[in-house]
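ENTRY TYPE: paired fold submission
RECORD: A
CONTENT: sequence, then structure tokens
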Amino acid sequence: METTSIFSIASTNAQWLSARQATVAGNIANANVTTYKALDTASFADTLNDVTNKMELTNVNHLTGTRSIGDVAIESSGKGVSLEAELAKSSQVRSQTELNTAITSSFHRMLLMTVKP
């Protein structure tokens, strides 16, 4: 895997985490509205499969690069809002963001070590 691909995946993950956190925050903000249906984002694996590193055939003998990221799909779960579940999702987003940042920082440091004299 190329390093640029790693950074591309990390960027896509950060965008997905941002969309998921916004969705969770909206669910929490509307928790006391009885008719509000909780929303959630599509899984990151689905988003990644739809967006990055998807080979596209332009010619029988050629393959192209990647597609740009679009909007993250947000789906209604059909249920009311459970504050416990939404707070757990928010905690997961925070943990995943910290992991994403740590991985990106590690690869950045490794790249910097290769260019130092």
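RECORD: B
CONTENT: sequence, then structure tokens
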Amino acid sequence: MEIVRISVSPVSPPGPSASDYSKMSDSDLARAVGDNFQAFKHATTPNATTDKIREVARRSLTGDAQKDNEIQLAREVLKRDNVMDELDSVDDNGKRDGVIGPWNPNMAADKLACNRCMQPPITTLQITF
């Protein structure tokens, strides 16, 4: 038997699915916004905006893997007000102004990770007689 032809097609790795975003920690979700910052960037400034995140989240899925990834990410961010709050206010002493600077996602992720570490551990006390 002789092999006549072998062909290999390049395949792009798929982005996280909506269910993957739902499984991310708040900190990882904020970092994902940073990784996809251009999708949420305002056209005339170097900043992203909360309005742009909402706009992207309202879009219908397209079948385009990258665009659908951005839409799913925006939708998950909107489900978690604490993440949106940190993205928006981390650089302005807690004040929300709708502007998300390029440095905000990493700052927010660090703060969200720190918040998780500072929560008291859940302990269970079992008393038996």
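NOTES ON RECORD B: The chain has a mean pLDDT of 85. Residues 18-118 form a domain with the Recoverin; domain 1 fold (CATH 1.10.238).
STATUS: closed
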